[in-house]
Design brief:
- This protein is α/β, with parallel strands linked by helices and about 450 residues long.
- It is about 45% helix and about 15% strand.
- The protein has 15 helices and twelve strands.
- It has helices at about 35-40, 90-105, 115-125, 130-140, 145-155, 155-180, 190, 195-220, 235-245, 290-305, 320-330, 370-380, 395-415, 420-440, 445-455; strands spanning about 10-15, 20-30, 50-55, 60-70, 80-90, 110, 225-230, 260-265, 270-275, 305-315, 340-345, 360.
- It has a six-stranded mixed β-sheet, with helices on one face. Strands 8-9-7-10-11-12 form a six-stranded mixed β-sheet, sandwiched between helices.
- Helix 6 runs antiparallel to helix 14 and helix 8 runs antiparallel to helix 13.
- The chain is flat.
């Protein structure tokens, strides 16, 4: 499916739906001169904006605007690209799109699929796969840090790191293959070339890139945080305090929150997707069916969270019934210990001197202690880099780098043996090379490309 329709010229509305000052219809193909002649009724100069009327089939103007022609290969897609900039009304743009399809019918012009313009840029070597993904990440960025990091990846910063690792692996693979191809020679290519030291340097470089990729993945994906605890301990107040807005209803009545309430905020540019949940209970039954459903959804949210804030009420510490219920909830949260943060709320009403060493004491009402909680959440997620030095990355990039590191580690162990098995060493280096190539698209399956570009918006 990827290459079956690759030869077709394509067209789409490239601006978001709705009213706007300017709307763009974009076309791309091997030769768009028939389309240009029919719609613009004149010859266009390359890369120059020309003000003219966009003509319908009767020669009447649909609208007046700017036409820009980017001849291949100096265009976004590497093909001829035509951009028609008209007034940004939905009806006007649909009329212009319909006219383009009508005028381009003789050359097989069709509506572009999601991401097909960027896909063609990738297939025509205008962008590698990591850069192409950065286009979508830049559009979808939810924080300034994420946008700057995506822009850095789009400019090739991430790809340059991967290419440097790839070149080092290729050189090492060449040395290993030379040793295998010329066993009769009494020249030990690997020792003379300091292959073990080279492999150690590659492993260190992979660790450095992997660390930065994980930071970039955090900027893109964010952290899923769930606020959990008994009813009326201040969970909704904590959500409002973190968000800086009254998102959840807060009352002294236990069980006020019946369903999940979610909000995305940012800390140092890292998105936090925070969910407030219905108050959990120990063995006591919920008051009604609605609350029972809310509690079930709360436990589902806890199971899927990257971090769980177990909120305690400092004013109720020492109450036997409260302590018993908390103990029951804590036992059920046992599987989440590595992502659990104990938060003791209402510190403005009562001070507790003996809290667990990793606990955070705060007041959702006054804001005291909130910064400590934010710092703790970032540390739990593994965030430590400065956004200015991070490139955007995806989970698949991190997984590919982890596989690369694993193959290199096996190769290092093998090379350290008194009599290295060179065939196995060569295979591990080949697998490491292929895992790296998946990031930039050097080794890519069609279904992977379809999954990536299918998530783009139409017209991009």
């Amino acid at each position: 499916m990827l290459l079956a329709r690759y030869q077709d010229p394509i067209v789409a509305i490239a601006t978001a739906p709705g009213r706007g000052a300017v709307g763009i219809v974009r076309a791309s193909g091997r030769d768009l001169s028939p389309l240009i002649g029919a719609v613009c009724n004149r010859t266009l100069c390359p890369r120059e904006a020309t003000y003219l009327g966009f003509q319908d089939e009767h020669g009447e103007a649909i609208d007046r605007g700017l036409a820009i022609w980017f001849p291949a290969p100096h265009s976004y897609t590497g093909e001829d690209v035509l951009e028609l900039q008209a007034h940004g009304g939905a009806v006007v743009l649909q009329l212009l799109l319909s006219r383009c399809l009508q005028a381009g019918a003789p050359i097989g012009l069709r509506v572009a699929e999601p991401g097909e313009f960027t896909q063609r840029a990738f297939l025509n070597d205008k962008l590698d796969l990591a850069q192409a993904e950065a286009v979508a990440d830049l559009i979808d960025a939810s924080t300034e840090a994420a946008a700057r990091s995506a822009s850095r990846s789009l400019a090739g910063a991430f790809s340059a790191e991967i290419d440097a690792l790839r070149d080092s692996l290729i050189l090492l693979r060449t040395l290993v293959e030379a040793t295998l191809d010329f066993p009769e020679e009494e020249i030990d290519f690997l020792r003379r070339a300091n292959a073990h030291e080279r492999l150690a340097a590659i492993a260190a470089a992979i660790d450095a890139v992997l660390d930065r990729a994980r930071q970039g993945s955090l900027l893109r994906e964010g952290i899923r945080v769930v606020i959990a605890g008994l009813p009326n301990v201040g969970k909704s107040s904590l959500l409002n305090a973190l968000a800086g807005a009254e998102l959840a209803i807060v009352t002294p009545i236990a069980g006020t929150t019946r369903d999940k309430v979610s909000q995305t905020i940012q800390i140092e540019g890292v998105p936090l997707h925070i969910t407030d949940t219905a108050g959990l209970r120990g063995n006591a039954d919920a008051a009604d069916e609605v609350e029972r459903i809310g509690i079930g959804r709360a436990w589902d949210a806890v199971d899927g969270a990257d971090a769980v804030l177990f909120v305690h009420d400092l004013t109720r510490i020492g109450e036997p019934a409260y302590a018993a219920e908390e103990a029951q909830i804590a036992a059920r949260l046992g599987d989440a210990q590595d992502r659990l943060v104990h938060v003791f709320n209402k510190a403005d009403l009562r001070t507790a001197t003996q809290l667990p060493g990793d606990a955070v004491a705060l007041s959702a009402r006054t804001g005291d202690g909130l910064q400590d909680l934010r710092t703790r959440l970032l540390a739990l997620a593994g965030w430590h880099a400065q956004p200015e030095g991070v490139f955007i990355a995806r989970a698949r990039h991190v997984h590919a780098l982890e596989r690369t590191r694993s193959h290199v580690a096996i190769a290092r162990d093998g090379l350290g043996q008194p009599a290295p098995a060179l065939e196995l060493l060569a295979e591990e280096l080949r697998l490491a090379h292929e895992a790296l190539g998946e990031i930039t698209g050097q080794f890519s399956a069609d279904d992977l490309l379809g999954e990536i570009f299918g998530r783009f918006c139409i017209g991009k």
